[in-house]
Amino acid sequence: MGKFIINGGKKLDGRIDLQGSKNSALPILSACVAVDGISVIHNCPDLTDVSAALKILECIGCRVKREGSTVTVDSTVVNRFDIPDNLMREMRSSIVFLGALISRFGAASVSSPGGCEIGLRPIDLHLSALRRMNVRINETGGVLECTTDGLCGANINLSFPSVGATENIMLASVGASGETVITNAAREPEIVDLADFLTSCGAVIYGAGESVIRIKPCRKLSSAEHTVIPDRIVASTFMACVASAGGKALIEGVCREYLAPVIPVFEAAGCDIAFRKNELFIKAPERLSRVKSVVTMPYPGFPTDSQAIIMAMLAKSRGTSIISEKIFENRFRHVPELIKMGADIRVEDGRVAVIEGVKKLYGANVTSCDLRGGCALAVAALGAEGKTVVDEIYHIDRGCETLETSLSQLGAEIKRE
Ligand code: UD1
Fold this sequence. Notes:
Blueprint: E1 3-7, E2 12-17, H1 22-34, E3 38-42, H2 48-59, E4 63-67, E5 70-74, H3 85-90, H4 97-105, E6 107-111, H5 124-132, E7 136-140, E8 143-147, E9 155-157, H6 163-173, E10 180-183, H7 189-200, E11 204-206, E12 212-216, E13 225-227, H8 232-245, E14 247-252, H9 256-259, H10 263-268, E15 272-276, E16 279-283, E17 293-295, H11 307-314, E18 320-324, H12 335-340, E19 344-348, E20 352-356, E21 365-367, H13 371-382, E22 387-391, H14 394-397, H15 403-409, E23 413-416
Parallel strand pairs: 2-14, 3-13, 9-10, 17-18, 21-22
Antiparallel strand pairs: 1-22, 1-23, 3-5, 4-5, 6-8, 7-8, 10-12, 11-12, 14-16, 15-16, 18-20, 19-20
Residues 23, 26, 93, 119-126, 160, 162-165, 190, 304-305, 327-328 line the site of uridine-diphosphate-N-acetylglucosamine.
């Protein structure tokens, strides 16, 4: 298991590039299965989660090639609709292959993803929507056997705007015979990116990015070329690194609109932020101010994926900040690790963290428990006095392509061991 060794206390200064979005790349790669042709996906980040998706594509018969950040998927030769359990387990979001397989084959056999490190993450919304679309689902021994004698469009009202369920429904709908209307759909930028890819393949989709999405019946999809959107969560992670360590940075390749939910939090903490085209400039204050309240919500609310890094940054602010986690039930696992570094944080009812800002954090031996929680430890370490060892960084590698390279470019002392 790799570790990051970080010597904190150095102000950052420099410019870095932003990677493509993991949460866009994964459903788009699975969408390649719903398409009959050779899809070319640019700006595809090099992450272990993306490698897991590519392994699944290869396993079901696709020919896959990566050249730099461009991935080519030839799905003309796809010949299986079952994904082995070991591949499903490598990545929880592999469940998004379900809709794509049903769309292409009218059948899918995948293992149920079960719980994960940040909470239970049930898939009841995915399954009930597919049932409404005339899919029969039998769950035996943890395997979901899905078949249909004809996918039908349906009116689906989600009780919660689940990102994964919205994606699975969209992917199944492009192979359905009638119109599908998703009400209370997720509005995340990654949904719009998936819709853009499917549209360039010939799908007819209205309303992506809004609460009601309409997917019209269409002819068989043909392949397309697509560029994945920038990763808004990694952008906010770099911003938190600068805020925590002090200094300034220019982040290239951002989309300003996607960052709108997080900018007010950085500004309330005292950071100066400016945009020019697709560049973001951030300058940290001498000491961060507290942020009275941060509440995670579905987009366009504050993202749950940026919650941990904001907490790490606020640990050293002046005053008391309160963070409420409204999306996942187990997303404060970084708190005990931040406390090892001298943070004063208490969790109330499992969902609210009260952060009493301290003057200094100190290097310590800490362990990543999940992807974003691991990034939070790096954020805190950059602003801490002395050496921090962040263990189990395979979690971080699932979603951050070049954390140590990018941070080194900003002048941070960080190395992988
Ligand atoms: C996606 C993102 C993840 C992000 C999350 C919320 C990917 C690969 N992952 O995950 O990084 O943190 O959105 O923005 O894009 N739920 C149910 N039943 C369901 C589905 C979801 O109860 O059938 C609940 C979940 O337990 C959770 C909430 O809904 O409490 C949000 O989940 P969802 O939006 O589905 O997240 P993911 O798609 O898994």
